[in-house]
Write a structure and sequence with these properties.
This protein is an alpha/beta fold. It has helices spanning 3-11, 40-56, 96-111, 126-133, 146-154, 156-179, 199-218, 253-256, 260-266, 281-284, 287-301, 321-336, and strands spanning 21-22, 62-64, 119-124, 185-190, 225-228, 248-251, 272-276, 306-310. An 8-stranded parallel beta sheet has the order 1-8-7-6-5-4-3-2. The model has no long low-confidence stretch (mean pLDDT 96).
Length: 337
């Protein structure tokens, strides 16, 4: 099978000659993240990192890593009350940030020219973006987010309306990245680590905006993946996402304390991606230990509707040849089963 044929079979829950492998890592250091508009050197490192990685591991699934442009920049300095959120409007595809995303995507796709793997662009939900704008540091589990909590309590409808407006801009940019740049789908990062949004709040005010982004992407191509971010062991309530209608779900099974097989059942048989922790066996195990881990994952989940990956991005300094170990182990498993 070609890599594209293999992934299409995965998404259709059809047999494959071997299970695909999809590990992703950042190509810049945290100090460069989100600095693409301010520092040309960081922006270039972000792009060129893909080239070096390709030399060691020709991926089964390509993801454009937009380290330096991850979070859409937002000025929220004027927000004192929930009513102020009405001033936040959708991002324009003509703005500097969107144009830089388009440039980055086109240049990375040029690096991968000739690869037959499907290509995904990284997108973050409006909830991620808004929380990030109002937080010092990453808005992961345990972050201090008093302003966001205050807005949620003051007027949840205003928060929900703001997220939906923001999502219109996110969807519009995704549309350009797919129709004009040639990406096959979005790798859509969502999260509600440690239950930051109470379940009822999430269902009523957060989920609609995230489902909207996915639905808009699906109008173009039905290959979109929801990445339920379990960054460094921070779990989510996976049941919040079972009705999102994605083609596949990237699940942090280790952070959630579940298995690939159980996650697949939870999502109604939809394809799942994952299996490894971020910085455990895949990062420091021997080749035999990596093979054993791969076989254990496949013993549990089977070889249909499954992609082997990690809970989230693996360490920046990982040896990309380790991904070849995983792929070889999956191929050996297929031959013996």
């Amino acid at each position: 099978m070609t890599k594209r044929e293999r992934m299409l079979n995965v998404l259709a829950n059809k047999p494959v000659d071997r299970v695909p492998v999809a590990f992703f890592r950042h190509f810049t250091q945290p100090g460069d993240w989100n600095m693409g508009l301010e520092r040309a050197d960081a922006f270039e490192r972000n792009i060129e990192g893909h080239r070096g990685a390709l030399e060691k591991f020709n991926p089964d699934v390509i993801k454009v890593m937009n380290d330096t442009l991850m979070m859409m920049p937002m000025d929220v300095s004027f927000v004192e009350h929930a009513s102020d959120l009405a001033k936040i409007q959708p991002i324009s595809v003509d703005c500097e940030y969107a144009q830089k995303q388009i440039e980055l995507t086109r240049r990375v796709l040029e690096i991968y020219k000739g690869c037959d793997a499907p290509v995904y662009v990284t997108a973050f939900s409006a909830a991620w973006v808004l929380r990030n704008a109002m937080t010092i540091g990453l808005p992961v589990a345990g972050a201090d987010e008093p302003q966001m909590r205050m807005l949620m309590e003051e007027d949840p409808e205003a928060v929900g309306d703001c997220l939906m407006r923001m999502s219109e801009g996110i969807a519009a940019l995704n549309r350009v990245l797919m129709t004009e740049c040639g990406a096959d789908g979005i790798y859509f990062s969502v999260a509600n680590q440690a239950g930051f949004f109470p379940k009822e709040f999430h269902q009523k005010y957060v989920a609609p905006s995230e489902k909207y982004v996915l639905a808009e992407a699906k109008k173009i191509r039905d290959m979109n993946i929801v990445h339920i971010c379990g960054y460094h062991g921070h779990g989510n309530d996976l049941s919040l996402y079972t009705e999102y209608g994605a083609a596949a779900y990237s699940v942090a099974v280790n952070a959630e304390g579940t298995t690939m097989a159980d996650a697949k059942k939870l999502f109604g048989g939809a394809p799942v991606i994952g299996g490894f922790t971020q910085d455990g066996v895949i990062y420091k195990g021997t080749r035999e230990e990596v093979k054993k881990a791969v076989w254990n994952i496949l013993d549990n989940a089977g070889q249909t509707g499954v992609v082997i990956g990690a809970d989230c991005t693996v360490p920046n300094d990982i040896d990309d040849d380790r991904f070849n170990w995983v792929r070889d182990a999956a191929a050996e498993y297929a031959k013996e089963h």
